[in-house]
Amino acid sequence: MEADNDIQTTPRGFHCKLCDVTIPNKPSLEDHVRGKKHEHLCRLRAKRKSQEENSVFVSGFRAATSRTELEEYFEHFGPVTEVIMDKERGVYAIVEFAEAGGTQSALTQLEHSLHGLKLRVKPRERKEFKLTGRGKHDPKKAQVGMGKLSYELCQAGSVNEQMQKVVETFQLSEGDRKARELLVQLLQEVFSEFLPDCQIIPFGSSVNTFGVHGCDLDLVLDLENTKAFQCRARTSDQTGEDRSEDGRSEDSILSDIDLASASAAELLDLVAAILRKCVPGVHKVQCVSTARLPLVKFNYRPLALQGDITINNRLAVRNTRFLQLCSALDSRVRPLVYTVRFWAKQKQLAGNPFGGGPLLNNYALTLLVVFYLQSVEPPVLPTVEKLRGMACEEEVCVIDGWDCTFPSQPFSVPPSKNTDDLCTLLFGFFRFYSKFDFPSVVVSLRETCALPIADFVGDEEMPDEPEGCVAKLRPSAGPKLGPVTILDPFELQHNVAGNLSERTHRSLRHELTEAEKYCRSLQFQRKSAKGKSWGLVRLFTPHGEAAAAACDAPYRHLEICIPFRAASLPDGHRTDPSEGGDACRTVWFGRLCSVVELVFRDVLKCTPVEGHARLDPSEAGQGATVEEAVEGQSVEGCSPQVSAHAGVKRPLSVDEGPSSSPQGKRQRLDPWAEHPESVHWSWAQTHPVWAGRRKVRKDLLKMSDEASQPEGGSSTLESRVTQHIMEKQANPRDLLEFSVDGTVVGVGESMKAVIKFCPTNDVSGHFQDFFHFLESFLPKMVETMLAKLE
Ligand code: UTP
């Protein structure tokens, strides 16, 4: 049965899920299933399954109970092969019997006791970490409000639960992943038209099990088979034979370029041209030939996501498979990686604009977690060298001369004997790296320990190859050394943290030490009885925010964070990554503020109140509709109180505002021209515009026969929804007044706009409902409108 499920029929023949290979036809499939690799993996899978079925989970014994005592007790039910103890706390154990009979006898006995204590004996659950997200697909759900997350984390019962919550909150939903798969299919179809036999392969966070909402879609365009196709086609042309064997000929694009000798820039131009001209929904296509691996960036409007295409980058596809394997080997890997990644983002240690910059990238952070999990005692994950030894002959894989061998299936690797819980491992991570002497050692996932950096200094060659290495294994030069050196597990010449500045290294050490200190405190480990923040909430306090303010009153701030998205910058500001810093910050925040104002003023029909710079509608473009403002690529009547310098608010008076043009006419205000660092608005809302929106939207769509739109998907529709709700209530009353303060914090990709709300008049107590609605509505609406600004 299981064997039947292993084989899938595909348009190209068959795919064996067990061995992860594509097989072109039935006879080869028959050979494959009789082959060594398939049989070996089938046997291993059966072995792991029986190990799991033959084990029981035991708890309730005294902390001092030894392994032998447990073994002796359970021998009464059948021969015991192994007892794995929870090392740190001695509160549970896994007992493995030689046969299923032992498990059954132990489980059927109603009561167990040892040294006078009642034991709990349960079937062993192998918790597969579910990849599926909860909830419906919402491609635009890219933001997670920190306020809401803090609240939910505070409600959890333990740090372990909090870490699981972090995964649930950020992971890609099933719908997100399906939508990405469809986009990959679309690209595959289009590119195959022009580049026969090419392959579009996703890698990175979309597929490595560590993806978050809205993360980039990294793709490799593999042209190896196309090269072979072109070569065959050319040979048959020269020999005068009829076309290529499969009847296809080089089409116009292929006849213009020789794939074997084309430069990287030529290939990128070709990819960019296909994307621009032939893929519907793609825009903002840009070649980045200066990156370590040249790439083409693009935006895909229907999913509001950014994609990157590199060419023939097989190592990245392979290291993605490696991360997938690590994730599948132990269910603790994902929560740990998600937690560390979010911590690093909050502390501004990770996330570089446009992939370049002085911070850690997510790949490097993930490798740090994997290295730590290889280094704990007993290890949670095996080293790359050990994994290599567990692979069978058919799994040997060499790419560009680098040995990339590891087993294709998790069950080829014996389960870890480490029983630490997530909380212990997280604390351990900070303890391990706070004492780690980054400048003197090289983090290498191949070995069991960090290597002295002296082995790499001034040495053109790498240190000795481990025995049995099958491929190159000797890089002509060592990796680029830096304050932090993390060797890629396969491309041993590449320091994945080679871009890190000395300053980031100092911050990293500081934050690791602070985190380690905090993890030792009771606030970390114990839920606060007084409703104060605890556990991960404090750990996630953003860099630079006064800890007390952010921590002791987690619900005090009603704030919505809107993270930076390079895709929402105008083209000209995305061309030079080195300008990513201040220029991006001011341009992006300026655009965002303009759009936020439009959402309140025109979409939600709030009215400015005293203290809010009022503009004469005839002069300031109050008459302009949202669509005019957005589609016309300018925003008029933008009237917040604006400060040109961070933190200092300067009311923008009517005289200074856009209406004060010498001509006394409407003036186009480029939304990004002001470059504000903070803004302030005061608004009043007279109607409960948040109540019943979904139904009104549905009714309006039905009446007009328009295509269905998700919440926040169209500013025109949302304005009409608001209008409709307002019209239904003839006598408006002053429902509530509130102030809104926006600031931009962070740098690079971890930059975000923090929009804080404060009810200034809320006698009828509606503000909480309004804010709750804004938490999901505002980020989506802002993103939709930003995407329309060119
Ligand atoms: P990222 O650092 O972007 O990681 O590298 P990510 O997991 O995709 O995280 P996001 O996109 O920031 O959410 C993307 C992929 O690029 C390859 C790896 O395959 C990685 O998963 N990569 C990255 C390298 O091979 N080497 C590097 O130095 C960096």
Automatic annotation (TrEMBL):
User: Where would I find the RRM domain in this sequence?
Assistant: 54-126
Q: Name one GO cellular component term.
A: nuclear speck
Q: Name one GO biological process term.
A: RNA 3'-end processing
Q: Which GO terms describe its molecular function?
A: ATP binding; poly(A) RNA polymerase activity; RNA binding; RNA uridylyltransferase activity; zinc ion binding
**Which reactions are catalysed by this chain?**
RNA(n) + UTP = RNA(n)-3'-uridine ribonucleotide + diphosphate
What Pfam families does this protein map onto? MTPAP-like_central, PAP_assoc, RRM_1, zf-met
| InterPro entries (alphabetical) | Matrin/U1-like-C_Znf_C2H2, MTPAP-like_central, NT_sf, Nucleotide-bd_a/b_plait_sf, PAP_assoc, RBD_domain_sf, RRM_dom, Znf_C2H2_sf
Which segments carry the region annotation Disordered?
A: 613-673
Needed cofactors? Mg(2+); Mn(2+)
Q: What class of enzyme is it?
A: transferase
Q: How does it assemble?
A: Associates with the cleavage and polyadenylation specificity factor (CPSF) complex. Interacts with CPSF1 and CPSF3; the interaction is direct. Interacts with PIP5K1A.
User: What functional role does this protein have?
Assistant: Poly(A) polymerase that creates the 3'-poly(A) tail of specific pre-mRNAs. Localizes to nuclear speckles together with PIP5K1A and mediates polyadenylation of a select set of mRNAs, such as HMOX1. In addition to polyadenylation, it is also required for the 3'-end cleavage of pre-mRNAs: binds to the 3'UTR of targeted pre-mRNAs and promotes the recruitment and assembly of the CPSF complex on the 3'UTR of pre-mRNAs. In addition to adenylyltransferase activity, also has uridylyltransferase activity.
Name this polypeptide is given: Speckle targeted PIP5K1A-regulated poly(A) polymerase
Annotated gene: tut1
